[in-house]
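Minimal example, chain plus fe (ii) ion.
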Amino acid sequence: MNKICRKVISVVLCLSLLLSMGMVSAFATDGTAVERVSCVVNGDTASQRGFTWYTEAETATEIKIFKNAVADVTDTLTLSNVKCEEWEGHYMHQVTVSGLEAGTLYTYVVGDGNVWSDVGTFTTDDGDDKINFITIADVQASSEENFEKASYVMEAAAKMMPNADFVANLGDYTNDSTNEEWDAYFKYFQKYNNMATHVPVAGNHDGLGVWHWFENMFALDTSESVQNLNGVNYSFDYGNVHFAVLNTNDLIAISNAQLNWLRNDMNSTDADWKIVLMHKSPYTLGKDGKWPDALYLSEALTNVLDECNVDVVMSGHDHQYLRTKSLYDNAVAEDGNGTTYILAGTAGTKRYEVREFMPGTYMQTEFIDALTIQKNGYGNYWDGEDWDQTDPERIGGVFSTMSIDGGELKFEAYVVNDETQELKLIDEMTITKETGENEATFEGDNSTSTFEYALDVVPSFLSLAAYAIGNWLIKTVFNLPKILYYVIKTDTF
Ligand SMILES: [Fe+2]
């Protein structure tokens, strides 16, 4: 029986069980209804997951886990970090579940023991070297209408890859991180959160004005998190891939402490593939690529990525699709053994053009392998020399899929047409490599205490300031005529 059939049967069986148990969430009107449910990576992907949900009223925190939907195995599992805390006018519930079996399909419900959520599913990592996952970025909606439009992109992604091991969201789930916006996000995306494990990446909009939204929305492993005021950095293994998730949204996009954490983290694995997921992008032609923090990423961060043989970086923030060639030391890696940077485009409706003063100044055009942007009612794409090639089929939100099987990585990016929801393949890439070549060279504790992080803040700001003055400012002054011409012509910066 294939994975999809097993999932469908599991959900049906689990629903029957629930109905026989009593109420489900839809019938609750006394503040006990279960909302904003997520099941996220948390430590060992073969045996552990983190769950979060919300209620309006203070209720008990209960979870039921079913193995293959036929057996309630909750009593055989370990539940830790069980919380019910008031957060921004609601009650936030979190549980970490460990003791799961590898390579097993689970279904779950969460609630107070009487009122339960809809059924969610996830599958634990089976330890082989195959993995499939979906990525979206920058839904960043405020209105229900725009959340709904973005959900069509996720719907297309779920149909394209129904057996995804996880769905990664590269940040900016909402625009202003209000209760209303998070409710709207979950209204339109809950069913996709229910289909597989979620991998959240913090965006700068995910906690605007209120710190710690992100860790209260997703039950992540924060044990090694360096910067966690407005996001969380963490890492995990899935298949033969080691993933590091960065937080680029704190007081500084990347501190020396987070760079040190990343270096140790990437040197602690012998996984065949190394992938970094983050929100802000080191390489972009969008409006945010002109600021010192983006350019600093393309220097300080990429040095560490080069050093640690990171294969792919996926990011968001600038709402355009851009994939670089393989880069090493801020130049094209002629042997292909560098890092590929993918700015994943937006699943939402707010899309950024190319700032015409940026190519050749803030980013070298020879780095670009693929680019899709949208302006003047057309999708525009890169033809090898220019981004101004028009294509009306490229108007829509973007999602991407990645499949890794042993030494082969296949990546595809699609636009989902705003009007027709038809798919347009806008980019594809395959990387092959010899497996078994990475070695772990770091062992030991990679946590950073609050005191150590505080001590690091001033030197980190000084590093950024030195870069801003010594590099960014010179670049900006040198290109001022070009920038001013563009600003006067378009009234944008
Ligand atoms: Fe952003």
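The chain has a mean pLDDT of 92. Residues 450-478 form the longest helix (29 residues).
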